[in-house]
Structures are given as C-alpha cells and as structure tokens.
Specification:
Layout: H1 9-12, H2 14-21, E1 31-33, E2 41-42, E3 48-56, H3 68-85, E4 89-99, H4 105-121, E5 125-133, E6 138-146, E7 163-167, H5 172-181, H6 188-195, H7 201-207, E8 211-216, H8 221-232, E9 234-238, H9 247-256, H10 260-266, E10 273-277, E11 288-295, E12 301-303
Parallel strand pairs: 4-5, 9-12
Antiparallel strand pairs: 1-2, 3-6, 4-6, 7-10, 7-11, 8-10, 9-11
Helix pairs in contact: 3-4, 3-7, 5-6, 5-10
C-alpha cells in the first residue's frame, strides 16, 4: 500500500482518503459513536447549537497563498467562532470535503489535519463527514455545540445604554489580504492573520454570563455591528477615534497609503467576538470597549457619531 498522503486523489480513491483522514485517537468523551457508521452520536447536555460554514477555493482562499493546514484551520474556525458567539461550547465538527481528482492526496490529508488542529483549540473534535469529487476545492464545516445555561446569547438583546466591546483582533485579516494582493508575503503576522484567524473560543462562554447580544466579526465590524443593531432595534455608535492602532497595521497602512481604521472597520475573517454589555457591569477579561448602543437612529451603525461612507464589509453575490 502506498504511503499516507502520496499520489493524487484519483489514485487514492474516496475510501482510501477517508481511511487516511480519520483519526479515532482525537475523539473526545463527547463522541459516543465516531466516524465509520451512518451518523455520529454526540453526547450533549442541553439545548444544541448547530451552525455551518463553507470555504470555496478562489473565493475564500488561494493555494498559492495558504497551505492546506491553513485552509483546514480557517474552515474550522469559521464555525467554531459561531458557536462561541452564541456563548456555547463546541462538542463536534462534521466536515464535507470536495476536490478535483487531480488534487494531491497529501493536500487533502493536511487540510483534514488543520481542521482537527483548530477543533482541538476549542476542545472539540471531528466526528464525521463526507468526501466527494468536485471541480474546485470546497471545505464545509458543521459545528455542534452546547448552549450556555440560561440559553444562547442572541443578536437581538442589545439595549440603549449598553457598551459595545470586542475580544480579539480585527482588521488584521484584511490587512493580510492587502499585503498578499500586492504580491508580498510579509509582514508575516498580517499574512498569517489572513490565512487563519486566532480566536479566543473560551471568551464566548465567559461573556455569555453578562452579554446582552453577541456576534463574531466575519463580514466586517460595521456589517456585524449592524446585524446586532438591526436585530435589537437600536443603533450602534463605534468610537474609532480613540483606538490604538496596532504597530503591524499602522506600518502596512503607511506603506500602502491607506487609513488602517478602514481595515479595522470593514475587514472580516478575524472572527473576533463582538458583544454588548450593561454599562453598569465590568467587562469580561479580554473584552475592550469600542463603542456604545443608543436609541435607534436613521442609521443602524455610526462611526464617531457619523455615517461611514467607505463601505461596511463583505457580502456574497454583491462583489
């Protein structure tokens, strides 16, 4: 038998690939029945959170920019962050993978390893999935998690007088995309931020004890703050004037003659956790105040008290 990860998917075949990517040793105690049966059996404690996200080659990633492990990590992070944004804990991932038959099997095996690696960061594992032949590479990750005691944190609970706070980096992935789009591979910290996010998954569980609303920043700060504002019937005023600009963003923005705040306001894919809290409560560790919630105005989101005219974030089918 050929060594794991050599040859193409055409040579390895569907069942050979499944054999290569299944890792029974990585399963957690939450998995009663893992890969190998018609469905997985997952042990849950109460209300169940379910979400899914898809990464498509040429839309979300390029192989000349990202390694297979990077793609796997990024695909997993998108769904893991959604569970965290509801205040929940992910128990298991189910992954569907499609690729051309000419794809090196090593790429597929490494992508699966990246998914498992990111899942482990959130205390989860891969419980099953599917592999198919497709015209381009597609990775779809479904996450299954436990809701927090008292129920999931929704987008619809923000109230006028609340503060807006964020946990995690924002604008970094957008800056990394700008660097790569100009043909460069450094600064590495920004390029890596585009390749895969760094998400504090446990922060969602902690925030759930006091957050009135929460979301992860996948489409851009303004866009996702707007989702909270619309669901809650309020306006969110982002205080961008007081931000400290990280050195890496500041240096890249100066080199490209752009305002780094545009990346921070409109860039997605960092999956930072954005939440609203009562002004009377201390913010959870890791969260930083970046704005406030006010009564509904004409605009759902304001920046420094004004409308922002440089775009709001990414939206599929409109690009």
């Amino acid at each position: 038998m050929e060594e794991p990860g050599t040859g193409t998917l055409a040579e390895l075949g569907e069942f050979g690939l499944i054999e290569r990517i299944i890792d029974q040793d990585s399963l957690t105690d939450a998995i009663v029945v893992g890969p190998g049966d018609d469905t997985a059996v997952v042990r849950m404690s109460g209300e169940v959170l379910i979400t899914t996200d898809m990464l498509v080659e040429g839309v979300h990633f390029r192989q000349d920019w990202s390694s297979a492990i990077d793609v796997g990590r990024r695909a997993a992070a998108a769904s893991l962050a959604d569970i965290a944004a509801m205040g929940g804990s992910t128990r298991a991932l189910v992954v569907s993978f499609g690729a051309p038959s000419s794809t090196p099997s090593a790429w597929a095996v490494a992508c699966a390893a990246g998914v498992r690696e990111e899942a482990a960061r959130a205390g989860a594992c891969v419980a099953g999935g599917d592999v198919v032949s497709s015209p381009g590479i597609v990775v779809n990750v479904t996450a299954i998690g436990d809701a927090p005691v008292g129920g999931a944190v929704l987008r619809s609970g923000a109230k006028a007088g609340d503060v807006l706070a964020i946990c995690g980096r924002f604008g970094w992935a957008a800056a990394g995309l700008a660097v790569l789009s100009r043909g460069f591979k450094s600064p590495r910290v920004l390029v890596d931020a585009h390749r895969f996010p760094e998400v504090n998954y446990s922060a969602g569980v902690v925030a759930a004890k006091g957050a009135s609303a929460m979301i992860d920043v996948s489409d851009g700060l303004i866009a996702d703050a707007g989702h909270i504002a619309d669901a809650s019937g309020v306006t969110v005023d982002i205080d961008a004037a007081s931000w400290e600009i990280p050195d890496a963003l500041s240096a890249a923005a100066a080199a490209y003659n752009v305002d780094p705040r545009v990346w921070m306001l409109t860039g997605g894919d960092d999956h930072a956790l954005l939440a609203t809290f009562s002004a009377r409560k201390k913010l959870p560790e890791g969260f930083v105040r970046i704005g406030s919630v006010i009564d509904r105005a004409e605009s759902a989101v304001l920046v420094n008290g004004q409308d922002f005219d440089a775009g709001s974030g990414y939206e599929h089918f409109k690009r």
